[in-house]
Each structure stands twice: as C-alpha cells, then as structure tokens.
Amino acid sequence: MTPMKFLLFVLPLTNAQYGSNDTSMTTTASTTTTGSASSSTHKVDVGKNGFTFDPETLTVAAGEKVEFHFYPQNHSMTQASFDNPCHPISASSFSSGFMPTTKASETVFTLTINDTTPLWFYCGQIGHCQAGMVGVINPPSNGQDTLDSFKKAANTAVGSTIPASVQGGILEKSGAETLSSNSSSATVSASATTSEPASGTTSSTVSPTSAANSVGIAFDMCILVILASFAALCMM
Predict the structure, then answer these.
(1) Residue 118: inside a domain, yes or no?
(2) What is the CATH number of the domain that holds 109?
(3) Strands, E, within the chain: which ranges?
(4) 3-class SS at 145?
(5) Which residues cross the membrane (predicted)?
(6) 78 - beta bridge partners?
(7) Is 182 contained in some domain?
(8) Is the confidence at residue 147, as pLDDT, over 70?
(9) pLDDT per position as a tens digit, 71-102
(10) For burial by CB atoms within 10 Å, which of 14, 37, 100, 200 has the most?
C-alpha cells in the first residue's frame, strides 16, 4: 500500500471515532396559570334614587357576591320571607344594620350567595319597606311569588324590624374591599430548563458533549499532521 493510499484509508477512521460533530439542544418550557378565578361581584345602590334598591332584582350564581352601597339618609337591608315582608325571616336573617350617612357611604355590606334560592330583602327604616323599598336576589322563574306581589304585601305590612346586629355578610370599607379584590388576581408563573440572560448581557454555555467533540477534533488534526508528514517523507 502506498503512503497516499494509507493516508486516504486512515482519514475516515479518525472522523468516525467521535461521530457527528452536529449536536442539538432541546429546551422545554412550560407555562402554568394558577390562582382561583375571581368571582363575579354585583353592586346594589341602597337609597341612591329615593326609597329604592337599584337594581331591585338580581340574578346571581352560587359563589358570586353582592355588594350593597348605602346613600343618605339612613337605610338598611335585611332578609325577609316572601310571606312576611318588612320583618326578618328568622333570628339568623342576613342584615346590614342601619347605615346613617350624609353622603355615599364608604362602608359596604357584602353577601356571598351560596345557592340560587330566592332571597327577599327590604329596608328596615320606618315606612321605607311599606313605600316599596324591597328587592329580591334570584327571583322564581314562574309562579305567583313575584317582586310586584312582594311590594303589594309590603305596602300593607305592619311596622318594620331588623335584627339587633350585623349578620350574614361582611361590613368593610370600600377601599379595603377593592384592595382585597386586586390582591387576589390570578398569577402566571413560567418555568423552563434555560434562563434568559439579563438585559444588555450575553451568556454562553458549553455542554460536556461539545467540549468532548472539540478535544476530538484537535486530536484528529494532530493525527492528520503526523500522517501528512509521514507521507511526505515516504515520497522523497
């Protein structure tokens, strides 16, 4: 075998020793959305437009909230039964208590609705319930239990009473409620096998495989130089 043929035979073997120099890196990224979905909140203005709840009828899903915002002069909202308006349905009826104010009150009474059972309510101030200041959450879809019928019964009710304490809901400043709602917003977190460098900087990472291939290439070059020198000597 001539030196040149020997050189051509050995060259492929040196490259095959380390395999292909092309490497690929796979980065897996995952994004997860966490946090509880914020419940829908419904707003009711109490006494803003006279002896009224605005709106006086609401459809609210289980788990959602209803906020009662109070206006002058001194109103309340208390749960009643359809058959006995202007008086608490029981000792545990939800009730905001009286809310005396000369302007839009910063204090809000918030109810969390647990189911879709009709909830009838009224203002317990003297004469207000009889004047039609009543409302209903999740009214019946059919039958004779309508808001108009409830108003007619309230018009002839004798007196008004409310529980002695605030119960069934939460009284708090509207600013605190807003802060609480904002702090409970959903968060998005992301994780990946690689990280982005800080802005304005460049990062470079050499994998062990790449380092080994670089050493192999350098070794191949040394062999090629030796073989070339050997071939040149033989041809002289």
Answers:
(1) yes
(2) 2.60.40.420
(3) 29-34, 41-46, 53-54, 57-58, 65-70, 74-75, 78-80, 99-100, 107-112, 119-122, 134-137, 170-173, 187-192
(4) coil
(5) 215-235
(6) 95, 122
(7) no
(8) yes
(9) 999 999 999 999 999 999 999 999 999 999 99
(10) 14
Helix (H) or strand (E) holding 70: strand 65-70
Please state the pTM of the whole predicted model: 0.59
Of the candidates 46, 198, 35, the one whose C-alpha atom is nearest the C-alpha of residue 107 is: 46
| Residue 102: domain span | 41-169
Task: State both tokens at 137.
Answer: 């959450």
Judge contact between 166 and 97, C-beta under 8 A: yes
**Which amino acid type is present at position 132?**
G
189 in any annotated domain: no
| Inter-CA distances, 39 with 45, 50, 116, 229, Å | 20, 30, 15, 81
Instruction: Identify whether 206 is part of a domain.
Output: no
- Answer yes or no: are the C-beta atoms of 213 and 23 closer than 8 Å: yes
Contact present, 132 and 154 (Cβ < 8 Å): yes
What residue type is assigned to position 45 of the chain?
D
